[in-house]
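User: Second chain of the day. Same drill as before.
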Amino acid sequence: MVTGIHEECGVFGIYTNKTSDVAAQTYVSLYALQHRGQESCGIVVNDDGVFSYHKDVGLVNQVFDKETLERLGKGNIAIGHVRYSTTGNCNASNAQPLVVRHIKGPMAIAHNGNLTNARELREQYENKGMIFHSTNDTEVISYAITEERLRAPSIQAALEKAMYRIKGAYSLLVMSPTKLIAARDPDGFRPLCLGKIDDGYVVASETCAFDSIGAEYIRDLKPGEMIVIDKNGVNSITTHCGKKGTICVFEYVYFARPDSVIEGSSVHMARLRAGKYLWREHPVDADIVIGVPDSGLDAALGFSQESGIPYGIGFIKNRYIGRTFIQPSQTERTNSVKIKLNAISSTVKGKRVVMIDDSIVRGTTSGRIVKLLRDAGAKEVHIRISSPAFIAPCYFGTDIDSKENLIACKMTNEEICEYIGADSLGYLSVESVKKLAGNSKCDFCVGCFTEKYPIEVPKDMPKDKFESKISEKK
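Assistant: Same format as last time:
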């Protein structure tokens, strides 16, 4: 059951004109993208058409060590992936990148997003006799490309054809023996950007990956654009371009790192704006403003700047607990918030506190955080959320798969406020959340806040759509 908004996936690719330690550069870049996925990760290195790869469940520093990176060897192309499962369970078989070997040569693929027609496509391929080893969308994409590759003159021509078949959200990296290809879906739901490094190029979900290895940001890929990087440089294919794009607005609210730039807009500045808009829409008499780490901190600073209420550090976050933290008993599960987060009594004791967070999903975690502040001596706790209320599922890569799990679908604002134990509650409006990126070059998907989506969505698409399908057959 959903307890909060979780990370998506992060992709990184590098192409150089000479053999170099691309595995190490990919490793460092995945570290920078770790916030986008903490379940599994992997790297594939291409050395003159020979693919070496390693992937497993765990954080980047758990899956890779010095010896593992050395075994991957050197090469001139590599792709990497960090995963959070919006489709498919957390296990080694679902770790990416996927490596596919067929008659036209090997191919590696890494993907961020969610296909809306994955279930339909998978059934078609299964009926053709194709065998699936994982339960994620990426393997469906790999079959779509491979099928086209059997009759297409090149890997990029095959992907160009496959993009007519796959629907939904995808920021995609494909590696062939001689090329690195990046593609973004025609609606541009997920970010993907191009950079320059020494004598080569890099592609990543966020610019923070470029900063980690000293690469220079060039531009974002256009919605629907495919770029091919090979010995001749960068070639752009715009067959599927034409839409302005509707990037997920939650990239600015939560997913992306504050030091990243997406579609020309600073994520940090977007979150500052969120806080400023919150104050204008939901002012309150208070003594101090605090944020819930990490994505609530910038919004709290913006709220403070706009209101004149002092900003303070209200929580300490334990940064040494991964997503796999074991909670063997109900008591320990109940106390898990205290282990991951603790209130600073000297900041909040005896004060009227404004607490800024990025979202409320079920309300359970929010209630426990409010209790932390009460136990630390806060006189009043006013909750301000830097996004609108979730009222609908996301079909494009966010871990919100059922209205029945969303507290805003079951309670009024007043009832939610009472349930979590706050003195007041205010959400950012849909109108304001659309303005977070400033003068952005694209529009935004706000379907999870409005139940109005930019493209047609399936009637039913659970997170475990392929696992449930398998169990039905047994």
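Residues 323-330, 468-474 have pLDDT under 50 and may be disordered.

User: Great, on to the next one.
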